[in-house]
């Protein structure tokens, strides 16, 4: 019994992940309305996971993440209207996002805490202001339509199924990369910075450089999400990077659970469902969402991920407690050598 | 040149409105360490409340008073009912007030709709006069707004620097624990500061209508201007709020007039420069805690 439970514990994460993947695949390829919902969920989840990498692990929550999402999308749109091919446009967008992240990062990493929130908000608003006011480049309020889609051989992103599969693949790659980065020395030092930056500096870590790199990583993934966004929606406009969008991304991360890479994915599901599903039935869905969010900040500071972890702990304790009650005389054997119990 | 003079006066009236908002914001931050992201939304709601009261009573000053009192009451509600649930976590307070932005904006949209509204100033304030130089014609209302802002600034200065309450508030900015240890009821001080801050935002929301209009989305603009002001002037610094308001308002007005393609983005250049050169703000002190 105990061995089963221990095995169950080890297998739970991958099994849960696979089950979630199967559900996502089913809806994504179903061709129904929900397919577009899940496409959006994945795209925003990519940006939200990037935000969480620096926010949850490094303690630096950005209110300008939508700015970089918009920058990636506008990079593609502007390049295409200037006559570049779709692949060149993607390359240009990536270059612009990285360039902007490296430039703005110099300012952003000088501060932390609340001032960091404010300065990233300002950076996001600078980008919004450019998208709205620099009409000769961006088309102003009307935005930029994207008409040519990248393709390789028989696969073209103009096909809805193809772009959904590509979005899923990019999502999984980003998810995997971030999981690896969180466990890497880089990710660990970010977490160390969050709990005690002074000590890390005393140990010889270049904390400013770490922060700078973390900022670049977070912004880069927002840009990647933006590139997918523009190919999925065929249009980018200033509303993509306005203040409320910055807020939505923070809502996703906080509601899902800061400091877990999968938490923001759940947060993204909830917020996108609010925007696209709840809004169909409740006209004041924004009020409802705001109230839900405030309640979450008050009652579950660790978000949905925290709730699930707590539920898991309770269930686990109940299950092991029951097992111990059933076999009270069994000596305490480590799970690894528990094979004889069979 | 005439154009430049008009823009400069415009800049100073805008500075007055921004000062009213950001002085409240900076007081709340300075004393309570609460980053109230709902400050812009309170500004907008204040304007809407005044609009409805003025439509009913046909008296501008009833609207101004009602908006100020109502927003002060909202502040009291938030400070007494919401903030105590947030475990004194700065980030939780910031996030909860961000959630309130969505709620307040949505409520405003439900009640007052999405079209821009307007409030006209009463009597002679609604007219324009010809200035004694260069024959510039300028609305009286804007001078009134500027004058009221200066009067409020002076009153706040007297309150902060010449009264016992002000001394307690300033001491609270510097060292909260010490104030508490001296037997002063910090809870009451906190409530008073939060109410004062939101009431100022509501007051500014009414006076700001002739300057920035009354429409959804204004709340974000005003919040960002206020944030820029307090970062430039120094978080928690009253003098910094005055200086920052003038810098930001002039940058915004000249930018809109002379570089319309980048005016909004140019606004944040002073902010970036200050952060690079003097991260604690022009008149801010380095955190001692």
Give an account of the 3D structure:
Chain A has 342 residues and is mostly helical. Chain A has helices at 2-28, 33-57, 65-81, 86-108, 113-133, 135-138, 160-183, 185-202, 207-233, 243-256, 263-281, 285-299, 303-326, and strands at 144-145, 151-152, 155-156, 235-236. Chain A has a domain at 33-242. In chain A, strands 1-4 form a two-stranded antiparallel sheet. A two-stranded antiparallel sheet of chain A has the order 2-3. Chain B is mostly helical and 289 residues long. In chain B, 74% of the residues lie in helices and 2% in strands. Chain B contains 13 helices and two strands. In chain B, α2 (39-57) packs across α8 (186-207). The A-B interface holds A 61, 107, 110-111, 113-115, 117-119, 121-123, 125-130, 132-136, 242-244, 247, 250-251, 254, 283-284, 286-287, 289-291, 293-294, 297-298, 301 and B 35, 82, 85-87, 89-92, 94-96, 98-103, 105-107, 110, 220, 223-224, 227-228, 231, 235, 260-265, 267-268, 271-272, 275-276, 279.
